[in-house]
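Issue 218. Parser rejects a valid record. Input:
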Amino acid sequence: MAKTKPTINVAFVGHVDHGKSTTIGRLMFDSGKLSPEQLEKLKAEAQKHGKVGFEFAFVMDKFKEERERGVTIDLSYEKLITNKYEVTIIDAPGHKDFIKNMITGASQADCAFLTVSAKDGVQPQTKEHVWLLKTMGVAQIAVSINKMDAVDYKEDVFNKVKADVSAVLKMAGYKPDTITFLAISGFKGDNVAKKSTNMPWYKGPTILEQFDLFTMPNKPTGLPLRMPLQDVYEITGIGTVPVGKIETGIMKIGQKVIILPGRSGKGVPGEVKTIEMHHEQMSEAEAGDNVGINIRGVGKKDVARGDVVCDASSPATIAEEFVAQIAVIAHPTVIAKGYTPVFHIHTAQVPCQFIELIEKTSPDGVNAKNPDFLKNGDVAKVRLKPIGNLVIETNATNPHMARFAIRDAGATVGAGVCIEIKAKKLI
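Output the parser choked on:
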């Protein structure tokens, strides 16, 4: 079998109606992934729903409800082979209600395209998505300034939007001068898979070329083994099979592990007996691999989703308390001490209480020590107490185990990263 190209996960994010799905649909068509017959079908479908001009978006928006509302609800995945990579494209929703799925998407992404409409410029959600990408650890981004056809392909409009987006990127801690800004029209196909003749002033890459300009992220195989459990199955003839994605490190047959926190809250020791990936037995697996494993000494009742398989010689921490840097994204009122929302970290969901607001920086750049409350747009350092057992690590120790989203009543309130931990004593 020929060596397959390395896989890179790329998320497309941006404000609702700024043209993400249309851009991806156009990319699929212009790169030959979508036949003219299929496109005709989608055109007819778009007309039927009174959505003329939405045919490219329909490539990704496969759900009937999405077609009728004209918005992307869930994450859709498409594969695209470029010269260098096998790209998994994640089309993340821009619509406010669907930001939870957007978080899931960003946490799986190696790189992202932030799509901004040249016509509408920076919107509140543009800012929110930039913060989320940063918090979720997406280091490489490119910005596609879309709908250039709607502004007559004018360079000055492009430059104005570029400057506005740069200011937002800078606030979140990105370096705009290292980021590529693309001038495109997803609908007309300018600079998507083919170079445009409508913007002689634009010298940058097309979307298709930009994929290959992203660098393959280093697999964090040098860090200790961490595999958060997604599910635990009971399989006849094999026994208990926990499944999940290895976030960091390498797993080998015979390796001594401890699963934290486990039903007991004190960890469940075991030894890796089998590793299976895509229905094949493996002798080892590494960061990025989705696997099912059988562990000697571990039964179905001992472990659950949200537990983490760790290398026994260097286990993760269960936090008594922790300090985090958070960004408040969309809280209906304000956050004060005592507030206890649900923290989503790796595959775990644990309520955590705000026990101290240490300091905050408002969007206007004003700093305050021990503020009384936090509101939307604030970036703050806070002390938190998990109500239950939470496996988390600091960003310095293992960034893959340090990031979280904060959710309350079905909405994302904020996102953050753990910077200090007071560990629970496991006696």
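Fixed in the parser; the record now loads. The chain has three domains: 7-213, 226-311, 317-423.
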